[in-house]
Design brief:
By secondary structure, this protein is α+β, with helices and mostly antiparallel strands. It contains 2 helices and 4 strands; from the N terminus they run αββββα. Strands 1-2-3-4 form a 4-stranded antiparallel sheet, with no helix packed on it.
Length: 110
C-alpha cells in the first residue's frame, strides 16, 4: 500500500440495515488528514442474467457542510412527520412481499 493510500483509509464505519437496503456511514481521511463522511445506500438487485449485484449510491459530505446538511435533513424529516404523522401501512400479498413499489431515484428530480 502506498503512503498516499494509507492516508485515505477509513477512520470509522457504521452500517445500518433498513429493510432491503443497507446504509454505510464511513468517516475517511484526506491526504492532509481532514475528515469527511461518505454515506452509501446499497441495495441487492438481480441482473438481466439472473445474477445478483449491489446497486450503490454515494454522497460525500465535507465538514464545512455538516451544519447545512443536517439543517436540510431535519427540515425534510420534520416535513414528512408533520404531513404524514403515521407511517403508511403496507399490505402484504400472498408471497409475503409488500405491495408498495420502490422509489426510483431518477424520478425524484422530475
Amino acid at each position: 500500500m502506498s503512503e498516499h493510500n494509507h492516508h485515505r483509509e477509513e477512520v470509522f464505519s457504521k452500517s445500518v440495515r433498513a429493510g432491503k437496503r443497507t446504509y454505510f456511514f464511513d468517516v475517511k481521511s484526506t491526504r492532509s488528514n481532514e475528515y469527511y463522511i461518505t454515506i452509501t445506500e446499497s441495495k441487492k438487485r438481480i441482473g438481466d442474467d439472473g445474477n445478483p449485484f449491489f446497486e450503490k449510491h454515494k454522497i460525500f459530505l465535507y465538514r464545512e457542510d455538516f451544519d447545512k446538511f443536517m439543517d436540510g435533513m431535519r427540515e425534510a424529516m420534520n416535513h414528512v412527520v408533520t404531513v404524514q404523522p403515521e407511517p403508511p401501512v403496507h399490505h402484504h400479498n400472498q408471497s409475503g412481499n409488500s405491495s408498495y413499489s420502490d422509489v426510483d431515484f431518477d424520478d425524484l428530480g422530475k
